[in-house]
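Incident review: delayed structure delivery

Summary: a single-chain prediction request sat in the queue longer than the usual turnaround. Root cause was a stuck worker, restarted by the on-call engineer. No data loss occurred. The affected request and its eventual output are reproduced below so the record is complete for anyone auditing the incident later.

Affected input:
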Amino acid sequence: MSKMYGVNHRTLQRRFDTERLADRIEDRLVHDFITVEDRAFIESLDMFFMATADAQGKPSCSYKGGDPGFIRVLDEHTFVFPNFDGNGMFLSMGNACENPKVGLLFIDFERQRRLRVSGVASLEAASIVDPPYVGAQFAVKVTVREVFPNCPRYIHKLKLVERSLFVPRGAVPPPVPAWKRMEWACDVLAVDDPARDLER
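Output delivered after worker restart:
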């Protein structure tokens, strides 16, 4: 019995004669823990994509970025990453509070490699790790359920030009994004938003 595939997965697999291949992938490549190789790959990255859905199933997909090492593997079943200041909508994190099941896609565009992870997310204090995440609103802890490599053949080979200047680093505060100074946003920012200091 498959843990991954439901009726509709099987229908498509049978239609395109990939059921045997799908079963082999589940049997040989899918695991419920983070291997040493997985850890090295995950912790080397500076970005990933995360899919969430609210309690009614409305989906959201978001990009998460930081410096390499911003994703920290705590053990073979758990990793954490920081939630930095964003647009204040909290679409992904609000979804995770309602429906903690998440899907994450880790891609290295230079080495053309990717890894899929599904798990359960929870919001934690930024101090859950030592040293704590500088500049984070909170940390997101993910308990993994499934980890498996994904076919890399359609990954476009890209080179890093520059990492974001807005990622919090040490004691120097990051610059304020231009959109926070725009007329439509500046009067409704959080009371402790650093952009408000620029208006004084």
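Verification: The mean pLDDT is 95.
Action items: add queue-age alerting; document worker restart procedure.
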